[in-house]
Amino acid sequence: MDLxxxxxxxxxxxxxxxxxxEERMDVAEQVARYKIGCGKPVYDPVRERSKIERAKDMATSxxxxxxxxxxxxxxxxxxxxxxxELVAEAHQDNFGFEECNGDHVGAKVAFQGVEGAYGHQATLxxxxxxxxxxxxxxxxxxxxxxxxxRADYGVLPVENxxxxxxxxxxxxxxxxxxxxxxxxxxxxxxxxxxLPGTEIDQIKTVYSHPQGLLQCSRFLDEKPEWEQVxxxxxxxxxxxxxxxxxxxxxxxxxxxxxxxxxxxxxKEKISDNDNNSTRFIIIRHKKEYVKGxxxxxxxxxxxxxxxxxxxxxxxxxxxxxxxxMTKIESRPIQGDKWRYRFFIDFDGNIxxxxxxxxxxxxxxxxxxxxxxxNYIQVE
Amino acid sequence: MDLxxxxxxxxxxxxxxxxxxEERMDVAEQVARYKIGCGKPVYDPVRERSKIERAKDMATSxxxxxxxxxxxxxxxxxxxxxxxELVAEAHQDNFGFEECNGDHVGAKVAFQGVEGAYGHQATLxxxxxxxxxxxxxxxxxxxxxxxxxRADYGVLPVENxxxxxxxxxxxxxxxxxxxxxxxxxxxxxxxxxxLPGTEIDQIKTVYSHPQGLLQCSRFLDEKPEWEQVxxxxxxxxxxxxxxxxxxxxxxxxxxxxxxxxxxxxxKEKISDNDNNSTRFIIIRHKKEYVKGxxxxxxxxxxxxxxxxxxxxxxxxxxxxxxxxMTKIESRPIQGDKWRYRFFIDFDGNIxxxxxxxxxxxxxxxxxxxxxxxNYIQVE
Lengths: 379, 379
Fold this sequence. Notes:
By secondary structure, chain A is an alpha/beta fold. Chain A has twelve helices and 17 strands.
């Protein structure tokens, strides 16, 4: 048969499908108005599931049954988006998040590391030079300061553009009842710092944060005789070199740290990648978001990780609502071998109907679901 | 109007939609057979785009236009999966992978670390106690030994059940023309090792691989005064304690390393999680798989990471073929800020049609697609 004739047939079928789709949307809207009128919930997963099973049974091949399932999942998700739009006109549900003006005058901020560390730079960058801030030792300490109310905000690194996510912070975000209210990106320019007058040939030991060592691995691979010592952060490393006054020691840290700890830059720009940045999150012990917040972070686990398509199905709530997923990460669940927790970022504001629809769907169909925050994205 | 009446109307519309969907699949199959007959490619993104635009124009509201767009994207993706199935029937294509019997008698094997390290344990466990094996210093050295033919096989850790993936190995797997032919899981039982007669109170410095330090972080958090020094691997750390004969030093390594380096176990089972395992991959510079291989690893990037649903769309090829995805990871692409490369594992053998269909689809619709290997999974 001729290709043109086949394509005309497809065009004709598509026209009918579009007509039926629009009829279906009309009737679904009437159902929604009825439900809203008598206070019934829009989403009825049991009913949808049985509807899809009946639809699959009508298909004449196993391939088509699978196709029908996908198609009807989509159709019902589109209907639900429209229905939630109607519900949103009556009842707003922001999952306990409140819009705020983002004002942080007089706030106290905790960051990890010491003065001169990248976390300090992020704190000054986000809150301004005059902010009242203090440092703590570990990522978990930041979580605790904020959770227990000693700090209004905390600043934590979540991702480096070369080495990937900072896994500990992801794990902590799931554990603690704190929420992301902002983000800030710091350009990382690692340098090799030593006591003034030190020659690179004298060095035997180099100190840095494990991420600092990792991000300069190409430079360090050329110095296989150097001992690499991991410390709490890059600025502590610079401080140690200053305190110990030993010319066999060097630190990998920022040029800003050299100034603070009276060290010389022995070699600048030693990162593997000169386009290296670290993304920080700003956290609060409060579910709030500012007007214009355009990024949402969530985490969840799957009830049955080995069921075909269970992750795919969860992602469908984002996609069917025409939302743009920008990131997905998985982390092993402690004590539960080879099972994962997922972390997803997507564009949107929690006040919008499609976002609420996606969140509602995922909250219902995953386990340990958490909205980590809604904030203004950088870039 | 009555809810039951509305639901009957929806059922009636759905019946018609299913009938039209099946008709559309029939015609699309004829188009596919025609295309296969004259060697034309299945995927024609320009034609699909213009088709969707025309479909949207037929909708009578902007909401419905968005619904039509989503629906037709899905419809065409389903058609394409069927078309790739037909292509797979016409041309068997193992993507250059050859079935082999997995015989490795007389093989030379390279692993990272020294004797007594977990990599050594994995090598002996997979190949047997009599294997001819030797150690190299870094993960990349293993890649090079195998790639340049000095070793027939290499052994590399890819994931720990507590700390997650070993990111460097993922990055190297994408870079080097080597392939996974097997996997092996080693139970990790970290212990604190020291010179015989050492008391824990005497210790000032502890050596280990960064992963070893990370996996014992709860134990180490109680010893904030200890200096934590990162070395190449756990066994090198044990060796250092033996060589330096200094009772202020300890190593975190396996009890097996204690035996090899004449050290005492000062404290056993210090891992955060006593269900701690490391998964190793066995690599070759050859595209081969054994009969019964049931796990496939792939990597790819997205042409447009910020296009709604592009990852979802790529995953659809796995799901529509009823394959079970077991793992997804993303890694930043070096030098390309906030863009990611994805690593996915799913169940299957490269000789099977649904697997070939999924691979063909993803190969066409992602960029820098690589099949990392097909091997027998542990557990």
